[in-house]
Amino acid sequence: MADEVPTAPGIQVSLIQTQPIPLAIDLYCQPGEVLAIAGPSGGGKTTVLRAIAGLHHAENGSVKCQGEIWQDSASGFYLAAHRRAVGLVFQTYALFPHFTALGNIMEALAHLPKTVRKERARELLKRVHLDGLEDRYPKALSGGQQQRVAVARALAREPKVLLLDEPFSAVDQVTRRRLYRELNELRRSLSMPILLVTHDLEEATMLADRLCILHKGVTLQSGPPLEVAAHPVSATVARLMDQQNLFTAQIISHDPLARKTLLRWRGLVLEARYQPDYAPGSRVCWMIQSSNVLLHRRNRESRGDRENPLSGTIIEYMILGDHVSMRVEVDKQLQIAITITVPVHVARRNELAYGEQVTISLLAEGIHLMPFVKLRGTKQD
Amino acid sequence: MDWEALLLSIKLSGLTVLFLLPVGIVTGRWLAYRKFFGKSMVQALLAVPLVLPPTVLGYYLLVSLGGASALGQLLERLFGHGLVFNFEGLVIASIIFNLPFAIQPIQRAFEAIPREIREAAACCGMTPARVLWRIELPLAWTGIVSAITMTFAHTLGEFGVVLMVGGNIPGETKTIAIAIYDRVQAFDNDAAAVMSAFLLVFSMTAIAFTYLITDRNKHTYG
User: Fold this and answer.
1) Fewer CB near the last or first residue (10 Å), C or N of chain A?
2) According to the model, what pLDDT value does residue B222 have?
3) What number is the average pLDDT over the span A244-255?
4) Predicted local confidence at residue A380, as pLDDT
5) Interface membership of B138 toward A (CB under 8 Å)
6) Is pLDDT at B157 greater than 60 in this prediction?
7) Mean pLDDT within A87-92
8) Cβ <8 Å between B125 and A82
9) What local confidence, expressed as pLDDT, does residue A300 receive?
10) How does residue A1 score in pLDDT terms, banded at 50, 70 and 90?
11) Is the Cβ of B120 closer than 8 Å to some Cβ of chain A?
């Protein structure tokens, strides 16, 4: 109800709509927290930001931000965009082409007396390391510089929430890295909730405190990015988190004393972390992050080698920066392969190459179980 | 050179621009940003003067503004006299005839402003009126200038509608285009040549000016 003033700090959003794209989401972001909203395109990420900013009117919903009500469909209340204290950085930055960098920021400072606007705009530009470029027009700025102006402009009206809509998608890799560092540094000085829409999981992991996976308009899971990656609630989330090692298996038994759960996976018995929620005999999906797959050293055994050892052939060998991603085929007939990642120097020392035989171990602690669903395309169990 | 006719033409063009500019901005913006049922019909109706022979339009205006029609009678009571064959009637006809010349360039200019730019302005806390004044109008400026020049130049050279609705009354409805025709009819080719050359040079300059400012003020978005 509009007269009931929300007391919770931060921003609380719940939206339900069927048109133009279905949405049923509930999210909360604390002051100073960065919440990344990730998921495939068309899943409603940008629509959520637009609804918060007042640029999209969801059929049903409520938006409460830092003690203010911005939308409350129960009482038919909807605050116009220009009355909501939001800072929104658009994917295209949407700078005003007929104003200089300084002018763009001054346009967002109408709440201050005229005499101090220029000074304040200069400070904001300095804060995003653009001092000296005050008089440049947007078209004379590089992509990275334009993004910084957009961030400074979004902060200018002292927003109660900062919304970032894929702010790094329009710049090159090198610039992106630098902007990540700058945003990380900037956010420490910001006290409002920050919502970051991205389709890049690496970006979300790097910048966000919490990650919210949005798929077909529904929040599938939210939590710290590393936690979501390691313990997805479903095979869908695992897949959206780009999990390569996703299979199905059958529960054999649970051993509460040894804190182990035994799985049958295509004739093999695997030891997994104790997860008694799944009844013996039932089918499950399971996954393991490639960081939990251990490569056996050729000449000597090491700790963990005895956990779920598997032998196979390297059928894919890809150098990604300073790491190597390999697919080890453990069952040729069923075409089952496990993806592992090792540092380049480890791959070199072990003389790993395409076609080589290796032995790997699936660490029991890293085997995570999820409710059973039929997985497409592969014969996993 | 028929100075009286030229002055009358300039007065007619100026008044047409003056009345049409707000209409063009409001209608152009409305058509650019709103979706509604029957929008294509509205646009077609507004564009009709582009393709209709001026005499046809003039005929309908003559009939509808004349004292025999209900509208004509209403206008007659409003103005205190009939609207055909006088200057006021000419201004009304000219406004109707120039609707597409005023609306279309402005509509295109508003359409060219990316939605995000307007949304960003709202997110900066700017009221809709301020967005219009600080963002939309400056960005649509070239379209507005071209609407002004096109309407002005087009009114200056309009012949068919003027002849049908206004006739050829010196000082009242005899514009420069009519005067040229009048001079040719009277075998005064020299006068016709001077006035024609003037209209040619004027129209060329107006259009060149429009292109010049359009090219100079191209905004690149994004």
Assistant:
1) N
2) 45
3) 94
4) 47
5) yes
6) yes
7) 95
8) yes
9) 62
10) very low
11) yes
Q: Using an 8 Å Cβ cutoff, are A132 and A124 in contact? A: no
Q: Out of B119, B125, B138, whose CB is closest to A110? A: B125
Residue B82 binned pLDDT confidence (cut-offs 50, 70, 90): confident
- For residue range A112-143, what is the model confidence (pLDDT) as tens digits? 999 999 999 999 999 999 999 999 999 999 99
* Every domain of chain A and the residues it spans: 11-234, 246-371
Distances (CA, A) of B209 to A131, A150, B16, B150, B158: 38, 35, 20, 11, 20
pLDDT at A66 over 80: yes
Nearest to B125 among A92, A96, A157 (CB): A157
Residue of A nearest to B219 (CA): A97
Q: Find which of A52, A96, A171 to mutate to test the B interface (most B CBs within 10 Å of its CB).
A: A96
d(CA A221, CA A210): 10
**Any CB–CB contact under 8 A between B51 and chain A?**
no
**Could you tell me the domains of chain B?**
3-31+52-216 (1.10.3720.10)
Confirm or reject contact between B222 and chain A (CB < 8 A). yes
What's the CATH number of domain A11-234, 3.40.50.1980, 3.20.20.100, 3.80.10.10, 3.40.50.300?
3.40.50.300
Residue A3 has pLDDT above 50, yes or no: no
Which residue among A54, A55, A82 places its CB closest to the CB of B126? A82
Q: Calculate mean pLDDT across residues A41-61.
A: 92
Three-state DSSP at A264 gives: strand
Cα distance between residue B180 and residue B175, in whole Å: 9
CA distance A4 to A2: 5
A299 or A198: which leads in pLDDT:
A198
Beta-bridge partner residues of A180: none
CA distances from A292 to A239, A323, A380 (A): 17, 15, 19
How much of chain B, in percent, has pLDDT values that exceed 90? 59
The CATH code of the domain at A246-371 is 2.40.50.100
pLDDT reading at A305 higher than 80: no
Fold matches, A11-234 and A246-371: no
